[in-house]
Amino acid sequence: AEKERKAAMEKRRKELAGSLPEEPEAGGDGVVTIALRFADGRRGQRRFDGDEDMATVFNWVDGMFGMERERVELSTMTGQKKFVWGDVEGGDMTLSDAGLGKMTGLRVAEIEDED
Q1: Please, are residues 106 and 75 in contact by the beta-carbon 8 Å criterion?
Q2: Strand (E) or helix (H) holding 108
Q3: Which strands make up the sheet holding 82-84, listed edge to edge?
Q4: Which residues pair with 38 in a beta bridge?
Q5: pLDDT tens digit string along 12-53?
Q6: Quick one: angle between helices 54-65 and 2-19, nearest 10?
Q7: In 3D, which of 101, 59, 113, 106 has the Cα closest to residue 83?
Q8: First and final CA of the chain: distance in angstroms?
Q9: CA-CA distance, 55 to 90, in Å (whole number)?
Q10: Which residues contact 33 (CB under 8 A, 6 or more apart)?
C-alpha cells in the first residue's frame, strides 16, 4: 500500500509542478516574491501574482520540493502568521488576503503525525 501511495504522490507532484502559473516579471504591480526556508537548510524562491491563491504556494512546495502539502505548515519568519493546507485548500485566500508583502520569507515545517 505504501508503494502505491508513493506512486500516487509522484504522479500528483508532476501534475502540481506542471500546473504552477507562469512566474510574473520582477517588480511588477502586486508581484510577491516568496522565499522558502526548509528545516534541512534547503531554500527556494519564486514570484507569484498577489491575487494568486495561497493553495498554489502549497502546490509549489509539494510539486517542486517533494513535501506533501497536507503535512506542511508555512509560517512567516516572525511566526506571526501560520498557514496549513486545510485553511487554504478551498482556494478563497489570495497571497494579498494572507497579508504577504512584496518579499516574504516563509519557513516550511513538516507537521508531525500525532500518535
Answers
A1: yes
A2: strand 103-110
A3: 43-49, 31-38, 103-110, 72-76, 82-84
A4: 108
A5: 999 999 999 999 999 899 999 999 999 999 999 999 999 999
A6: 120
A7: 106
A8: 20
A9: 8
A10: 26, 45, 46, 47, 102, 103, 104
Tens digit of each residue's pLDDT (9 = 90 or more) over 54-69: 999 999 999 999 999 9
3-class SS of residue 45: strand
Cell representation of residue 13: 507532484
**Beta strands 43-49 and 31-38, pairing class:** antiparallel
Cell 500516487 appears where? 8
- The enclosing H or E element of 16 equals helix 2-19
Residue 86 has pLDDT above 70, yes or no: yes
> For residue 36, how many other CB atoms are within 10 A of its CB?
20
Closest alpha carbon to 37 in 61, 1, 55: 61
